[in-house]
Design goal:
Elements lengths: L5 H20 L6 H11 L6 H8 L3 H13 L3 E5 L7 E5 L1 H22 L5 H12 L2
Antiparallel strand pairs: 1-2
Helix pairs in contact: 1-5, 2-5, 3-4
């Protein structure tokens, strides 16, 4: 039976989580991919577009399109690096920072509700990390 196959189960669990997150983030003008980009940018030192792409493991074209959309909505800016004028970095705008904080809180709430039926959500996450070799 298809529902016994790990790939089937993982695919459909991911689809349900993605659907719940998409619905919850939509009023804030974001989806899960947008939020992942904002989180990568928010992670610390200013990153170039290519460094954001590497951190998220997406190709150059995809990150360019994602950043273009975020920039059009006023969430990010591309700027010259103050340390190296030859380098451009991507930073969150004040709107991007406040939207990220709200969206991240929503993401966590959706995840908690989604994982609530499990006896140990932390154990589930640890097991997934183990499978990823982390």
């Amino acid at each position: 039976m298809a529902s016994d196959r790990l790939g089937y189960l993982l695919k459909h669990v991911l689809a349900q989580l993605t659907e719940a997150q998409t619905a919850a983030l939509a009023p804030h003008g974001l989806n899960g991919r947008d939020l992942a980009v904002l989180a990568a940018i928010m992670s610390g030192e200013p990153l170039s577009q290519l460094e954001v792409a590497a951190r998220l493991r997406v190709d150059r074209t995809s990150i360019g399109d994602l950043l273009d959309g975020l920039e059009e909505r006023g969430f990010v800016e591309r700027r010259r690096s103050p340390e190296d004028r030859r380098r451009n970095v991507v930073v969150l705008t004040p709107l991007g920072e406040s939207t990220f904080e709200t969206a991240e809180r929503i993401r966590l709430e959706v995840e908690q509700a989604f994982l609530a039926p499990l006896s140990s959500a932390d154990r589930f996450r640890d097991d997934l990390r183990l499978l990823l070799g982390e």
